Amino acid sequence: MHEYSLVQAMFDQIEAIARDNKATAVRAIAVRIGTEAGVDVSLFRTAYDMFRERTICDGATLDVAELPARWTCPEGHGDLSRGQRLACSVCGRPARLAQGDEIILAGVELEVP
Amino acid sequence: MCDTCGCGDSEIVPVAVHERLLSANDRTARHNRDHFHDHHVRVVNLMGSPGSGKTAILESTARQLGSTARLGVLVGDLATDNDAQRVRAAGIAAEAITTGSACHLDAEMVHRGLHRLPWRDFDYLFIENVGNLVCPAIYDLGQDVNVVALSVTEGEDKPLKYPIIFRKADLVLLTKVDLLPALPNVRVAAIEENLSLVMPRPAMIPISSTTGEGVEKWVRWLQGVATRHSAPCAVPAW
Prior knowledge:
- The complex is a heterodimer.
- In chain A, 26% of the residues lie in helices and 30% in strands.
- Chain A is built from 2 helices and 5 strands.
- Chain A has helices at 3-20, 41-51; strands at 25-34, 61-67, 70-72, 96-99, 103-112.
- In chain A, helix 2 links the parallel strand 1 and strand 2.
- By secondary structure, chain B is α/β, with parallel strands linked by helices.
- The longest helix of chain B is centred in the first third of the chain and has 16 residues, at 23-38.
- Chain A binds chain B through residues 1-2, 5-6, 9-10, 12-13, 17, 21, 23-25, 27, 31, 36-39, 71, 83-87, 94-97, 102-113, and chain B through 1, 10-25, 102-104, 106, 134-135, 137-139, 163-165, 167, 196-201.
């Protein structure tokens, strides 16, 4: 249930950004979450809906883009297919997760009077 | 203000952020890691399910390594400091971090916990995380290595069910291997195979705190752990 602490961390981050920009409200929030990040997106949305009241994000829409996992060879022999051992089939090097572990606040839309 | 027509409406300002939601935790973790590195303390984040044998591993480690190295433990638990007491009884300095309802430790809790331990004197600091295979995996604490305790009674497919924590593990300790004769359906080779599907650098040591099997190998592995400097980049791998 760390989704609740993630949402709290997001509010802290957005409140600081809103302060810096002298914003009075947040219209929209965009986050990017990888499928290998260990975050349950529906729980994240539930936590957001539960906690946004009485924060600056109360009226904001939340857009979550899910990024699929992509494992690749660190030596450039291309991507691995799903379900295989996490080593390059050409050179045997341990694969690298090129995408999929992101938990990122991509951007916000602020209302500035 | 809208100054196109002077109507007085608020302006909508898009702000690109592109920052990790855990960036505050990452900063504290880097701060912890720099402290550990400066004082030559090697730090192990020990994770695993409730009952996987994390505390027993620490007791065995104390018996094997306690006379030649200074060890310390921070134990995360939802309630009680029973595990900290067990570890202290084994002769290791230990403090509990009671998390209340939090299902994981974060870098700030570790930082506060350090204030109650003479951690600068340690050769090794073990952070026994809250028993949970999901949440602890995403929080960097400032450790050098991640070790996951997986007991043979948890079944062969545990790595496939919780791939993220195993992906982040530098080592898996397969615990309670003395029970294998009673578990005809659990094959160590199948667990190893499943680990290779989720760990880029699969590493596993079978261990038993009851018979002492594997403890020496685990301690040798520990002795090879080097303290890490914080990565200079803003977005760490964690």
